Amino acid sequence: MTEKKINSAGLRGQSAGETALCTVGQSGSGLTYCGYDVSDLADNATFEEVAYLLFNGELPTTAELTQYKAELLGLRDIGQSLKDVLKLIPKDTHPMDVMRTGCSFLGNVEPEADFSQQRQAANRLLAAFPAIMCYWYRYSHEGLEIDCSSDEASLGGHFLRLLNGKTPSAQHERVMDVSLILYAEHEFNASTFTARVCASTLSDMYSCITGAIGTLRGPLHGGANEAAMDMIQKFKSPSDAKVQMAAMLERKEKIMGFGHAIYRTSDPRNVIIKAWSEKLAKQNGDTSLYDISVACEEFMWDSKKLFCNADFFHASTYNYMGIPTKLFTPIFVCSRLTGWAAHVMEQRSNNRIIRPSADYVGADPRKVIPIAQR
Ligand SMILES: CC(=O)SCCNC(=O)CCNC(=O)[C@H](O)C(C)(C)COP(=O)(O)OP(=O)(O)OC[C@H]1O[C@@H](n2cnc3c(N)ncnc32)[C@H](O)[C@@H]1OP(=O)(O)O
Ligand SMILES: O=C([O-])CC(=O)C(=O)O
């Protein structure tokens, strides 16, 4: 991987601390969690194993995983006060705002009293996020007060069950599992850095995660998967996609789902989620969304040498699974919570308040002129 040209805007290229959790753009496929290549994890592990890895530094044994999954299963349901709050949130609210409120409110009713409870708080959020998302979604969109507990074996399966009211196919459960693995952790990205800055003030876990959700929401970060879906849905065919994208570039618009702050020529997560998109497209019988996505990928590389990041083929993949577009970024939250919480714990274990300096470019020193004379 060639070095990316750097200037200091956006803190690009500057080390802002140490981490033992993740490397981005450095070795193997370019993305490792605690030393494991992400493609190895996507092929040979489950999301719960990855969550355990990020929280403990090692993959679990069978006994440890069984115990961990049982613990998470017991934490899936949410209390009536949180349900009542979710019921108050209007249908047209962006689901990321619902996640933010849900996370914050859980911190009101089940606060992290001290740091000895940090793992408990992280596991609670991990287990409860699918319920927060789906309870609000199905109440506001369908008028249903769903049962938020389920005995689905995986968190991905649990989410699909709450969303659709039925047990998902083994394949959909596996795709969700892979997707959650791919999104779990990514070093000092903007939302994780937000969580670490908040943690560095010795704030509580819920505040750190609430801030991170707000940061992930933007279309330059996690919100790109939804924005990519909105875009490709407007294209009528692969050739129409190329024509319309050329016009977008001409107008100097950003094409969501392309480019990256660290990777230079490819995002290692793309090849994995793209393969699932292709598989689901073929099974679906209508491959047009996948074909259009491939045309976008070809066009962006040929014209700008920009490549698909993790978000782009997630759009078609989730769409083929029947997931509403507005829930794409909240699913990212359900996954990235693991990385965020692991970074909060890491920051706390060797903390100094994060407080950089700024280069002042404002007015020279001056005196206040009394208001009547201005
Ligand atoms: C899971 C994730 O969060 S992955 C990222 C998801 N975000 C997106 O997909 C949004 C679209 N992509 C982008 O906006 C950017 O590529 C970012 C935010 C991801 C990275 O930003 P940067 O590090 O500043 O990008 P980079 O330095 O490579 O940009 C170089 C040039 O390419 C352009 N460029 C980069 N990405 C794109 C894009 N998707 N569409 C059009 N032009 C682009 C930039 O505008 C920049 O040109 P400029 O210097 O004339 O402004
Ligand atoms: O690392 C980044 O800047 C964005 C990203 O891909 C992620 O958070 O997954």
From TrEMBL:
GO annotations of cellular component type: cytoplasm
GO biological process, one term: tricarboxylic acid cycle
Catalytic residues as annotated in Swiss-Prot or TrEMBL: H260, D311
GO molecular function, one term: 2-methylcitrate synthase activity
Presence of the UniProt keyword Transferase in the record: yes
Record's catalysed reaction(s): propanoyl-CoA + oxaloacetate + H2O = (2S,3S)-2-methylcitrate + CoA + H(+); oxaloacetate + acetyl-CoA + H2O = citrate + CoA + H(+)
Entries under InterPro entries matching the protein: 2-MeCitrate/Citrate_synth_II, Citrate_synth-like_lrg_a-sub, Citrate_synth-like_sm_a-sub, Citrate_synthase, Citrate_synthase_AS, Citrate_synthase_bac-typ, Citrate_synthase_sf
Keywords for the protein's UniProt record, in alphabetical order: Transferase, Tricarboxylic acid cycle
Domain of life: Bacteria
SUPFAM superfamilies: Citrate synthase
Keyword Heme: no
Similarity annotation: Belongs to the citrate synthase family.
Record's protein name: Citrate synthase
Source species of the chain: Glaciecola punicea ACAM 611
